[in-house]
Input
Amino acid sequence: MRFIAFVASGLPRFGVVGETGVRAFPARIAQLGDYLALSAAERAGLSLEPVGPLESVTLRAPAHPNKNVMCVGRNYLGHAEEVARAGGVPLKLPSVPTFFTKAPTAIVAPGATLQLSGAVSGSYDWEAELAVVIGARCRDLAPSDALGAVFGYTCLNDVTARDLQREHGQWFKGKSLDQTCPIGPWIVSPDEIGDPQSLDIALRVDGVTKQSSNTGQMIFNLVAILVSLSRGMTLEPGDVIATGTPDGVGFARTPPEFLRDGTTMEVEIEKIGILRNPVAISAA
Output
């Protein structure tokens, strides 16, 4: 199934989208958290109301956790290599995943124009990522149970202010500016994804491909990420985990490339779809 958050007739709704268009759960189920709070039996008993074609609704971010979005840094070999090359340092692969977070206030809807300030940063960069949405409270996941904790998968664009990331010496500030975490366009259930480590992933800027890889190129696969992150730490229903970006980011290019006012980014992941966001960068 493809779970979708949207606005219809001025009201926030949550439902599914398919060949017959958008169908909404009862109005009391207005967001992912409401749905995940139900038991399996309660979910099975929900009715779905036809709403109309996808074009008739306004999309919202399908997942919006209360806590920070959790992310894995330098988790594709090609990206680790380009970062080392850009920094003029030897490549050193991590022995454990490198975790950081993005503030939930950075989350923005698919299709929304990212309103960014040129006075805050002059180096906005792109990062296409496969994101995992957690379906149930869990901790200390065993490898055999890890993927069972996943509710679904979606696209995420980890837009990053590279100058702030560099100046602050750690990644939170440069990763957490408002409207720098588009998520969507929907959450796809695991049965439709199959093997999450065999998905093509790409990013385009104004139709030009900047990133093109496959999730099989991750240094730490999803099982390793979930096992490591959940060790001694509780994951909650609705938590979002971004799993890293492939090579092709702007700052590591020769010469470096950054987002410009008026450009449009597209993250595309096989079996999920396209997360598209225009960019508006103001002078002040």
In short: The chain is about 15% helix and 35% strand. Residues 95 and 220 are 9 Å apart (CA to CA). The longest strand covers residues 273-282.
